[in-house]
Amino acid sequence: MKILLAGSGDIAQRIPPKLSGQHQFFGLKRRPINLSNGITPLIGDLTDVAYLDRVFREGFDVVVATLTPDSATEEGYQKAYVDSSAALCLAINNADHKPKLVIWVSSTSVYGQSSGSWVDEDSPANSATFSGRALLQAEQHIFALPCIAVVIRFSGIYGPGRTRMLDQVLAGVGRPDQPEQWSNRIHSEDCAGVIAHLIRMNEQQLPLSKLYLATDCQPVTQHELRNWLAARLNVSLVEEYANPRSARRCSNKKLLDSGYKFTFPSYREGYLALIEELNKSIP
């Protein structure tokens, strides 16, 4: 099976080891430098329809899009998500050999709910931010594809190279217990695991939903998480108020019902693994 990794960054490069060796992987990126795990690089721009038309002559069976904006600006999100999804969909519609499956990675930032309420795949996505609107517009492009198309909304991703929370705790930055600020997280290994899981389901001709919310099994408040980390890192915290960006809890029930087994089911397992790696790096 030929799999196109549209956007071949950290998450995409973790996918090949989670699938059988019978698959061929191609990584499409403007600068696909040092791709790992046997991914064949393809140099190009995902907003260039003429280029994508040539790419799809290769006859890909699966397309996985894991894109990130060059900047956290309205223009950056427009190009990374809206323009790229529109170009990708046009190229797929033009292709003689259409993929059997397209997986598009989105984000739980499309939700605007607050007050600690729970959200799932059926909750209204009503983000008032430009980033949330761009993500939703891209999702609509993907849902209109003439093949099986799945959108995954990941919550906050952490893991090797994604240690912002650990770095803040090591710097002594805590958060007050009120108002509650909920943190929904997923380890980067589980991000790749979820994508591989859905590809296997498609291979086995199992039914796929159009939308999955992918987050670990235990939402936690910023206050509780930072204090838990501080105890294990042996540091003291000074509580600093920050405008809460998220006050919701995300449910992964649909993903669990599909049979996915988390490598890191909660922040505890995931951050303990990161702390162990951190300790190994200290002389």
Automatic annotation (TrEMBL):
Residues 1-263 form the RmlD-like substrate binding domain. GO terms for molecular function: aldehyde dehydrogenase (NAD+) activity. SUPFAM superfamilies: NAD(P)-binding Rossmann-fold domains (SSF51735). Pfam families: RmlD_sub_bind. GO terms for cellular component: cytoplasm. It comes from the Bacteria. InterPro entries: NAD(P)-bd_dom_sf, NAD(P)-dependent_oxidoreduct, RmlD-like-bd. This is RmlD-like substrate binding domain-containing protein. The lineage of its organism: Bacteria, Pseudomonadati, Pseudomonadota, Gammaproteobacteria, Cellvibrionales.
